[in-house]
Specification:
- 36% of the residues lie in helices and 16% in strands.
- It contains 12 helices and 12 strands.
- The N terminus and C terminus are likely disordered.
- The strands form 3 sheets. Strands 10-9-11-1-12 form a 5-stranded parallel β-sheet, with helices on both faces. A 4-stranded parallel β-sheet has the order 3-2-4-5. A 3-stranded parallel β-sheet has the order 7-6-8, sandwiched between helices.
- It folds into 3 domains: 124 residues, Cobalt-precorrin-4 Transmethylase, domain 1, CATH 3.40.1010; 110 residues, Rossmann fold, CATH 3.40.50.11270; 84 residues, 4-hydroxy-3-methylbut-2-enyl diphosphate reductase, catalytic domain (Cobalt-precorrin-4 Transmethylase, domain 1).
- The longest helix has 17 residues.
- It is α/β, with parallel strands linked by helices and 362 residues long.
């Protein structure tokens, strides 16, 4: 009897054939000059730079494998690049061999995770962004002072899990402005809000407005929890969006701040906005109705990925690139203290992150 079972060979899909520039030009709805508005600042922030360098330095001085809990930052390219150098990404500490080297990601971890690592005898490097650490300390301090904490953020996000884990008995997560309308508290007179550092500034303040309408004595955190990089990147795209027929945001799907940039672009007037990890994911049909294209990237995106998008745009006639500057960023963070001691012993004087985050003018 003949076996007619179909066998899949698992072949990769054939790459899509792009429409040529001539074909796109022929289909254009607007024959005017084509230009790019390039947001500044964009891409790597100091906290991301610090975390990535921490893994690179650990690999250099301790040798592979170096284990990393979760993605060190939310960017596919960064993770794949570090994997190629010997980093091993795991979900939890119990996947790490006893006594091995483990790096905590930039998003931070709860005390329970730190304790679990200690129980397994792991050597750890804490690459938590210092701005996230600040929020952790606020949570601990306010919980000790008998405040109830309303943590504005996305439940399930690593950063929110870490902050919540600092004071779970005193913390409630508020996912959206809509949830602010229904959340119940124990004592409205001992209430403070904190937030995930990578949220939409506008949506966060709308959530706070609704909370304060219900709880007038709600207190603000001592300083802004949404990080400078998130705020600056959103402010830059707000300036570009009203002029843009199309906005391209470079960043990964699990990057909260990258996803927010797409939402902000649309909210502030961009006719279309899309997120891509890589230039090859840009659909050239988007250019048919686009005379002005805005380009930006999330805070965990290396500049090379933005340059690839600009190169593709250039192939389709977008050679006029204007950088729209919202702010200059010069913040540097020291590398994790656990790593600095090793670097010093080896004569490596690295302390800050100067240079890696500097972007050349377009």
């Amino acid at each position: 009897m003949t076996d007619t079972t179909t066998v899949s060979l698992g072949l990769p899909p054939m790459p899509r054939t792009r429409a040529s520039r001539a074909e796109i030009d022929a289909a254009r709805t607007n024959a005017g000059p084509q230009r790019v508005l390039l947001a500044a600042p964009r891409g790597y922030c100091a906290g991301v730079d610090r975390a990535v360098i921490a893994v690179e330095k650990a690999l250099e001085h301790y040798g592979p494998p170096v284990y990393v809990r979760k993605q060190i930052v939310h960017n596919k390219h960064v993770v794949e690049t570090l994997e190629a150098k010997g980093a091993v990404f795991v979900e939890e500490t119990d996947e790490v061999p006893e006594g091995a080297m483990l790096v905590f990601s930039a998003h931070g971890v709860s005390p329970a995770v730190v304790n679990a690592a200690e129980e397994r005898g792991l050597q750890t490097i804490d690459a938590t962004c210092p701005l996230v650490t600040k929020v952790h300390r606020e949570a601990v301090r306010f919980a000790k002072n008998d405040y109830e904490i309303l943590l504005i953020g996305h439940e399930g996000h690593e950063e929110v899990e870490g902050t919540y884990g600092e004071a779970p008995e005193a913390t409630q997560i508020v996912n959206s402005p809509e949830e602010a309308e229904t959340i119940q508290v124990k004592n409205p007179d001992r209430l403070i809000w904190l937030s995930q550092t990578t949220l939409s500034v506008d949506e966060t303040m709308e959530t706070v407005r609704r909370l304060r309408k219900r709880f007038p004595n709600l207190q603000d955190p001592p300083s802004d929890d949404i990080c400078y990089a998130t705020s600056n990147r959103q402010a830059a795209i707000k300036k570009i969006a009203p002029q843009a027929d199309l906005v391209i945001v470079v960043g990964s799907a699990n990057s909260s701040n990258s996803v927010r940039l797409v939402e902000v672009a649309l909210e502030y007037g961009a006719k279309a906005a899309y997120r891509v990890d890589f230039a090859h994911q840009v659909d050239e049909s988007w250019f048919v109705d686009a005379q002005t294209v805005g380009v930006t990237s999330g805070a965990s995106v290396p500049e090379v990925l933005v340059r690839d998008v600009l190169s593709l745009l250039s192939e389709y006639g977008y050679t006029d690139v204007e950088e729209v500057v919202e702010a200059e960023e010069d913040i540097l963070f020291s590398l994790p203290k656990e790593l600095r001691a090793t670097l010093k012993a080896h004569g490596d004087e690295s302390r800050g992150l100067g240079g890696r985050g500097v972007r050349p003018r377009a």
